[in-house]
Specification:
It is built from nine helices and no strands. By secondary structure, it is mostly helical. The longest helix is centred in the C-terminal third of the chain and has 25 residues.
Length: 172
């Protein structure tokens, strides 16, 4: 992880509030989370930004978490034309038709039970690992699952924030 100020972090620290909020919305769809992050700028290091992200995630209400989850497509169906979603879900890219079909069924059952998409930090996970996780987590209570989702969102946010602050170019 980045420990010092990078060109991306410096750009984030000095960007207009609206631009910073827009960049953060690409990281996490929760307006409350993004507003808390922007309000604490500037960050001396990426680690300080990550800690602020973790703290803001811990404070999100159930409604804020729902807003954050709404920005994530179901596993196995990344947003068309969204390289972030495709990259994060690459473990499903080479999955068999059978596994993709099973994930669709599991996603729908999960959504029926919890009222939102199954959310997992998919980066580095295989399709089988994601399937096993949804099979296990569908047995959770809504309260247990909300806290797991909060943790998974925090992991995703850190990965996405890392990309944000390590980016050298304005439009990368």
């Amino acid at each position: 992880m980045t420990s010092g100020t990078t060109p991306g972090l410096a750009r984030f620290n000095t960007s207009a509030e609206g631009d910073a909020l827009a960049a953060l919305h690409e990281v996490c769809s929760s307006l409350a989370w993004g507003s808390k992050i922007v309000a604490q700028r500037p960050y001396a290091t990426a680690e300080a930004l990550f800690l602020a992200s973790d703290a803001a995630m811990a404070e999100l209400t159930a409604e804020d978490l729902a807003e954050a989850m709404a920005g994530h497509p179901p596993i196995g169906r990344p947003k068309a034309g969204d390289p972030t979603s495709s990259r994060e879900q690459s473990g499903m890219a080479g999955a068999s038709a059978e596994l993709k079909s099973e994930m669709l069924e599991l996603n729908l059952a999960y959504q029926d039970k919890f009222g939102h998409v199954f959310l997992i930090c998919a980066t580095g996970k295989t399709g089988e690992q994601m399937r096993d996780a949804v099979r296990e987590r569908i047995e959770n209570s809504p309260e247990q699952e909300r806290e797991i989702v909060r943790t998974e969102l925090g992991k995703i946010n850190r990965i996405r924030l890392t990309r944000l602050v390590e980016t050298e170019e304005e439009n990368a």
